[in-house]
Design a protein that fits this description.
Blueprint (H helix, E strand, L loop, with lengths): L1 E10 L22 E8 L4 E6 L5 H9 L1 H4 L3 E9 L2 E2 L5 H4 L3 E4 L12 H11 L4 H15 L14 H13 L5 E5 L7 H16 L3 E5 L12 E6 L2 E7 H6 L2 H6 L30 E10 L5 E11 L3 E5 L6 H8 L7 E6 L2 E3 L1 H4 L3 E4 L12 H6 L7 H10 L15 H15 L3 E5 L7 H16 L3 E5 L3 H7 L2 E4 L7
Parallel strand pairs: 3-8, 3-9, 6-7, 7-8, 13-18, 13-19, 16-17, 17-18
Antiparallel strand pairs: 1-2, 1-4, 4-5, 9-10, 11-12, 11-14, 14-15
Length: 488
């Protein structure tokens, strides 16, 4: 049983890190603080945590797995007990024998360079015999259908594939309590269905499961109870009976995403797009002979020819590991091994020219946040620094209040909006977004959709790699499956 009693917590400044508050002056309080939290999770219960970005979901999970206060420093009041033991005074390696976590960013929880070693790592740390470790790995790989991902470099996996390995590294331990932080953020529909089946399996095994998630639809029929957080407090508790009565409209009014889940792919949204007969070649961004090969010889991208409507919002979809992120990296001129030419508005752009004409918001925005404040991130993206314009952009994305904060002190969804603000500030003609709504709640997903439409209204060509069906429905003019063009 998990018991949180009279919890109050505020982060304080440390030496930085992914969620630290590097830079600044004096004591810095992080966002994600919790207030007056009293929560009990029974053995074998499936609990869904949801709420707006930065509401404290990740912080609550860190209390349960012992990362607070053992790793993330802060002012903590109250008690956190697992099976009657106060884990705030326990060693992390003891808590890890009972509690396993799939982090929001799986890259941050890997300790090895290859997938098979990563699955073995947790078992090795618990001192299991070699035969037992190999048996557990085999059973986990078979159950999760991970055979194609074994003996692979973790650095060469897509975000969704890394998420699968993170889930497998949890499954292999056999721990009774499993925490997951936004596990579907980077997964395609097929992978979400696989994740749902895994969660069903864990639930049938009477494991205690706590999932912090914005995309709640695939969890709605699994959860025994839902907790809605707001500004670090428990805003609402929904029993299974209450969940059954909630409509999609009622959830939207609460700022939550849809609870309607379909395992069937939505038909491509081509009805808004012009046909070839209505457009001449200048109406398209044309891609020719895009090619990318890893050092080990694995070909990730081979697109002989592809057309994307200019001045439109186009969703690029496809299964995890099928080259979507590599496609965006190649399109914006990243990677010296990338080959190919882009034609746009009568001009031909090779790799170096694309670097000056295309802006990419990365899937892991931590890779592109460099400065000491949110405002500075926007200013360095402008051709000429303009603070008034920068503040207007931050206001439009609901992050003006963080202007003086260090970007790395923000939640995942807030960091995402900072990167989007930088893209807007760049003023470039072609905007690329890699999963821009991963980690975002319903309200901010709508906000991103509005921003993308405003970019389109400015004459920008917007290309979005996404698995987010709600975003596609909200704002995309056309959907292109990369697998139809990538000949690998």
């Amino acid at each position: 049983m998990i018991e949180l009693k009279n919890i109050n917590f505020e982060y304080i400044k440390t030496d930085g890190g992914e969620n630290g508050a590097a830079g600044g002056q004096g004591e810095t309080v992080w966002n994600g603080s919790l207030h007056d939290i009293n929560l009990t999770v029974s053995d074998g219960e499936f609990l869904l945590l949801t709420g707006g970005s930065g509401c404290g979901k990740t912080t609550l999970l860190r209390l349960v797995n012992g990362l607070i206060p053992n790793f993330f420093e802060g002012k903590l009041e109250g008690s956190i007990k697992i099976n009657g033991i106060d884990i705030s005074h326990a060693e992390l390696y003891d808590t890890a024998k009972t509690v396993s976590t799939v982090f929001q960013n799986p890259r941050s929880q890997f300790f090895n360079v290859d997938t098979t070693s990563e699955l073995a790592f947790a078992c090795e740390n618990q001192g299991m015999e070699e035969g037992e470790i190999l048996k557990r790995i085999e059973n986990t790989v078979n159950a999760l259908h991970l055979e194609p991902l074994m003996n692979r470099s973790l650095f060469e996996l897509s975000g969704g594939q890394k998420q699968k390995i993170a889930c497998a590294s949890v499954a292999v331990t056999g721990n009774k309590i499993i925490l997951l932080d936004e596990p579907s953020a980077n997964l395609d529909l097929h992978s979400i269905c696989e994740l749902k089946e895994l969660l069903k399996k864990w639930k049938a095994e009477k494991k205690t499961i706590v999932v912090a998630e914005h995309r709640i639809s695939y969890l709605w029929d699994l959860a025994d109870r839902t907790i809605v957080l707001n500004n670090g407090q428990l805003q609402k508790e929904l029993s299974r009976t209450q969940m059954n009565k909630l409509t999609e409209e009622a959830l939207h009014k609460m700022g939550l995403r849809t609870n309607v889940f379909s395992s069937a792919e939505v038909q491509n949204k081509t009805e808004k797009s012009k046909s070839d007969s209505e457009c001449d070649v200048k109406d398209y961004l044309t891609i020719k002979n895009f090619f990318y090969k890893y050092k080990n010889g694995l070909v990730a991208l081979n697109i002989p020819y592809m057309k994307i409507p200019s001045g439109q919002i186009t969703a690029i979809t496809g299964e995890n590991g099928k080259g979507k992120t590599t496609f965006l990296n190649t399109l914006c001129g990243l990677g010296h091994r990338a080959k190919g030419v882009m034609e746009y508005k009568g001009k031909s752009y090779k790799r170096s020219a694309r670097q000056k004409s295309v802006f990419l918001v990365m899937q892991d925005v931590n890779h592109q946040l460099f400065t000491e404040s949110v405002l500075d991130e926007v200013l360095i993206s402008q051709e000429e620094a303009n603070e008034e314009a920068a503040h207007k952009i931050l206001t439009s994305l609901d992050i003006e209040q963080f202007a003086d904060r260090h970007p790395q002190s923000l939640s995942g969804g807030q960091k995402q909006r900072v990167a989007v603000a930088s893209a807007i500030a760049s003023g470039r003609d072609i905007m690329l977004f890699d999963e821009p709504t991963s980690g975002l709640d319903y309200t901010h997903m709508l906000q991103i959709g509005k921003i993308l439409r405003s970019l389109q209204a400015m004459g920008k060509t917007v290309i979005v790699v996404t698995h987010d069906r709600e975003l596609i429905k909200e704002c995309c003019d056309e959907e292109i499956s990369l697998g139809d063009f990538n000949k690998v």
